[in-house]
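Reply to dn_fold:

You asked what the input looked like. This is it:
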Amino acid sequence: QVHFSPTDTSLSIDIVIFINGLPVITGELKNRLTGQTVNDAINQYKTDRDPRELLFQFGRCMVHFAVDDLDVQMCTHLKKLESWFLPFNKGFNAGAGNPPNPNGISTDYLWKEILTKESLTDIIENYAQIIEKKDEKTGKKKYEQVFPRYHQLKVLRQLLANIPQSGVG
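and this is what came back:
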């Protein structure tokens, strides 16, 4: 639990990952055994997490994860009810979700594969960024936070690992 609000010290979030004291990822964790799902975590971000709070301001953290024992969702820009969450799942049977895990919960790949020091460093160095987009009609600039989804990251890493054996052709 991390208490994040200087004005309401009772407010807390389940997990924050810091690198050298800087917050880079937040997470709301839920458990279906207690009757809460990833949808409760998403709702918590949309209704109880004020994007004006320093921790949740755009560009402060790379990504916000909503996690339960079966599902992971991600959002890069909290906008209250307009927050857009995308799946961050492995996929199962050529569809959505995660495969059963005989050694633990289905979403433990988040900790075991993605949030390791090596993997997170790679994501920060090579994938996560804020990009500027310009509206062609108005000329107005807007900014978007980019964080790879699970399947995108997996495919890119597989392609890069294959280059030494197969070349770039």
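The longest strand covers residues 22-29.
Hope that clears it up.
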